[in-house]
Prior knowledge:
By secondary structure, the protein is mostly helical.
Amino acid sequence: MYKDSCEEFIQKLNSAAPVPGGGGASALFGAAGAALGGMVLNIAAGKKKADECKAEREACIREAEALEKKFLQLMNQDAEGFLPLSKAYGMPKNTEEEKKERDRVMQAALLSACEAPLAMEETAVQALGLMERCLTLGAKMAVSDVGVGAAALKAAADGAYLNVLINAKMVKDEKKQEALMAKATGLKEEADQKADILYGQVIDKL
């Protein structure tokens, strides 16, 4: 798992290194979004007055922590998934046999490279569901952070979608390609809709 500081991660992002790239950045957006959800819940939990929503809020705090960790795990999975694809691009293609082997490896690597970004989209949708609860269970003084979290999670889903798109378009099996794109597009649309509604609700409360 990435153990870099934020500064080190950004420096690597701004380099010729193949990873981290857009997938890693998308996962970071998602982790930040989930963490903001946890923040607004923790602020509310720290109040001394009696809290009838304590149990539900504590469950949401644990969920936010789990989602944050999931995004960070996916950051590593995305980097690991790209390595076989990177190696496939470098395989020789001088003979017909080499071309066939390169193509076989490439197609398998492309499918593998779609797994992490698809999971990021799914996790973003789940996290946006949590953010909806944060709007009512979280601290009112931090309502703007719910909006920032929603925006970050939308960016995570949209970025992950692009990573699916760039790989899926090279998948030669039409049924597999269509299935990947249908799933990725559906998740993107669901995340965008949830995020836009939530962002608008935050604006109305400010």
